[in-house]
Design goal:
Length: 333
């Protein structure tokens, strides 16, 4: 099966290769296999008060979430067999978490950005603060001229100018990795490709090295209209949060319509929400120490400010479901 009859995969896939774990957003040349990575059981964590509270939150939120059901022809789960991952299974995997001194998410702009694209970067960083309950800092932009000719190409069929992801990860990001970085992600307006045999990727990340790169090249023109801006913002937020979720050891979700679902096309990705399912929400809250009620409150407020009506309504319903037993925690006004 070659890339001419395979849809663009707009999600990070987890691969174990040469001793490192790589996450890719790609247009594949061939199908891939995704192993479940486990490092043992953390029984103490499973019995903690925090885990029990998150387990209770999961049950309160389940009625709000839609099960995936049978995949459509060409969908991710119609092509790839994956085991999924519950909250309890996540705990047993001894996940990589942003604890200790490494708690900052750094966004590294790479190349030139228009005014509208720069706003997308700024708002995506703000959204990630709400989503992960972690500080997010935007670094000073690096020029695309730091990418040498040997790490560039023009796509042979489409004519798109592209840069090599491995060069960005190994030569641009790793030498500049801040000591307190949980994640160091480059965001570029350039198209990306990961090497021979590939058409393009939306992004790629090394989970072990805490570095990644993703592109807004294929997310639409945010300057065309208000609607186009919101669509580009939503797509960028989905990719960023999905990718960081994988860097915190979260596997693809196979039970619910969820931001952590795999996608085999742009159309399938657009059908998936930016919100996490109850199981994946609990993973993020456990990993980052976020309070679910406060998290939903911040996310609802962000979406309201940006005119993301459906997303705001969903987060507000989630907040109400969690706060039902404690009316004092509901927002006023």
């Amino acid at each position: 099966m070659n890339s001419s009859n395979v849809g663009a995969v707009v999600t990070m896939s987890v691969l174990l290769t040469a001793g490192s774990i790589l996450g890719l957003l790609m247009w594949p040349r061939t199908a891939l296999v995704f192993p479940l990575i486990s490092f043992g059981v953390n029984s103490a964590a499973e019995g903690s008060d925090a885990v029990n509270e998150l387990a209770a939150a999961i049950e309160k939120l389940r009625p709000l979430h839609k099960k995936l059901g049978r995949p459509q022809p060409g969908d991710w789960l119609a092509v790839h067999r994956e085991p999924g991952q519950t909250f309890r299974e996540y705990l047993r995997s001894r996940p990589v978490t942003p604890r200790g001194k490494r708690r900052v998410i750094y966004v590294q702009p790479l190349g030139e950005f228009t005014k509208a694209q720069h706003k997308i970067v700024t708002l995506t960083a703000e959204f990630m603060r709400c989503y992960f309950n972690l500080p997010v800092e935007i670094k000073e932009a690096l020029p695309l001229s730091i990418i040498p000719e040997r790490a560039r190409r023009v796509h042979p069929s489409w004519g798109d100018k592209q840069i090599l992801t491995s060069y960005v990860l190994d030569k641009v990001l790793r030498p500049r990795l801040p000591a307190d970085a949980a994640v160091y992600l480059a965001l570029t307006t350039s198209d990306l490709w990961p090497g021979k045999g590939w058409n393009f990727v939306f992004g790629e990340a090394s989970l072990r090295e805490r570095v990644g790169v993703w592109s807004i090249y294929r997310n639409g023109d945010p300057a065309r209209s208000d609607k186009s801006f919101r669509l580009c913002l939503l797509r960028t937020m989905k990719t960023a949060t999905h990718e960081i979720g994988h860097m915190f050891s979260m596997m693809h979700c196979i039970e619910y319509a969820c931001c952590m679902c795999g996608s085999n096309s742009r159309q399938e990705s657009d059908r998936r929400p930016v919100a996490l399912c109850p199981e994946c929400m609990a993973k993020v809250c456990w990993a980052t120490g976020a309070d679910p009620v406060e998290r939903y409150r911040r996310l609802a407020a962000f979406c309201k400010r940006q005119g993301l009506v459906a997303e705001e309504e969903f987060y507000a319903k989630s907040l109400k479901a969690l706060a039902a037993a404690n009316p004092a925690s509901l927002p006023s006004g």
